[in-house]
Amino acid sequence: MAARIAQTTGAAHTAILGLGVYRPTRIVTNDEVAGPIDSSDEWIRTRSGIKTRRFAGESETIHSMSVGAARGALESAGIAAEQVDCVIVATSTHLLLTPAAAPQIATELGMNAPAAFDVSAGCAGFCHALAMASDLVRVGTANHVLVVGVEKLTNTINPTDRSTAFLFADGAGAVVVGPAEQQGIGPVVWGSDGTQSHAIRQDKDWMEFFAEIDEKGLDAVRPYMRMEGTAVFRWAAHSLEKVCRDAVDRAGLSTDDLDAMIPHQANGRIIEIMARVLELPEHCALANDIEEAGNTSAASVPLAMEALLRNGESKPGDTALLIAFGAGLSYAAQVVTLPDWR
Ligand SMILES: CC(C)(COP(=O)(O)OP(=O)(O)OC[C@H]1O[C@@H](n2cnc3c(N)ncnc32)[C@H](O)[C@@H]1OP(=O)(O)O)[C@@H](O)C(=O)NCCC(=O)NCCS
């Protein structure tokens, strides 16, 4: 008979204990991005809801932005770096296949050899990582998990590409997940549709690029991120209502119980459509950080959460629906209690 292997038990309940963000210092107007794509401030505002976004400078890296956001999250949670025993970094723009960004970020934060790894689930990465963090604490694999969503999309976007150049931007958001007296992170509803993997993608893989260099030398064109905007828009606007409703249902709540909805800041029109089809109650705040942050992919949900709390539209203890979606295509949604935030 096989030897009996012991199993751990963790916290009965988990919650987001703290939140921090890093917004790059340089604010970029629509006029600045409009030139190379023959667009205009008016077109960008009406089609995407974006007024300004932030582009990271050279010294604002995946690592430095993550560390900045994480320090804020640890401080607001009142948790010391050494208490964190797992770090999950959600990103699609750490441009090194190996090693992952998380171990170095953990070291820079002064952590004591935690488990540390990256998650690649496009714009849905933060909500995937949050779900994993909560489950790790509940089964006792970890006590405190730092979850970071970070992107430097300006490194992957062609500034002359009309469907991406005005949309994507840079930033980082982080939360600490740990034990709590009552459940503050609902069950995740997540999934993917690989038949749509072409809709948001890197346009050539590295081997294709190296072959192109061999063939064309300096005329080789580097890989860029591409998006079939209309296909993504249709999918997001019409397929995600059920995901949102299932997440609320699995949390044992109804949409009337929601104080806030914090969707991935993909496009202002998608956010509006989602809120409308869900028939959110009047008192429910709707995150609209895209106006000032653009689409920051895996960073957008924690950044939007911080904006709602900072501008007073939401308060700690409020019940919020998170939903994120993007490359894969992939999606994840859960209901959370908003953290104490200073
Ligand atoms: C990118 C997006 C804003 C484009 O809007 P759209 O309404 O689908 O635009 P279309 O590509 O159908 O083009 C409509 C018109 O605008 C023009 N256009 C396209 N991009 C433009 C730009 N950047 N500036 C000005 N005009 C533009 C097109 O040429 C077209 O003109 P025409 O009607 O004279 O032919 C929209 O598809 C979108 O936001 N999709 C979802 C993206 C998303 O959320 N991605 C994130 C998922 S993580």
UniProtKB/TrEMBL annotation:
Positions of the Beta-ketoacyl-[acyl-carrier-protein] synthase III C-terminal domain: 249-337
Coiled-coil positions: none
Entry superkingdom: Bacteria
CDD domains given in the database record: KAS_III
InterPro entries: ACP_syn_III_C, ACP_syn_III_N, FabH, Thiolase-like
Keyword Transmembrane helix: no
Region ACP-binding, residue ranges: 265-269
Main location: cytoplasm
Pathway(s) where this gene product acts: Lipid metabolism; fatty acid biosynthesis
Catalytic reactions of this protein: malonyl-[ACP] + acetyl-CoA + H(+) = 3-oxobutanoyl-[ACP] + CO2 + CoA
Entries under Gene3D superfamilies matching the protein: 3.40.47.10
Active site (catalytic residues): 123, 264, 295
Cell compartments where the protein resides: Cytoplasm
Protein EC: 2.3.1.180
Beta-ketoacyl-[acyl-carrier-protein] synthase III N-terminal domain ranges (all copies): 117-194
Keywords in alphabetical order: Acyltransferase, Cytoplasm, Fatty acid biosynthesis, Fatty acid metabolism, Lipid biosynthesis, Lipid metabolism, Multifunctional enzyme, Transferase
Complex formation: Homodimer.
Description of its domains: The last Arg residue of the ACP-binding site is essential for the weak association between ACP/AcpP and FabH.
Protein family per UniProt: Belongs to the thiolase-like superfamily. FabH family.
Name under which the protein is recorded: Beta-ketoacyl-[acyl-carrier-protein] synthase III
Gene assigned in the entry: fabH
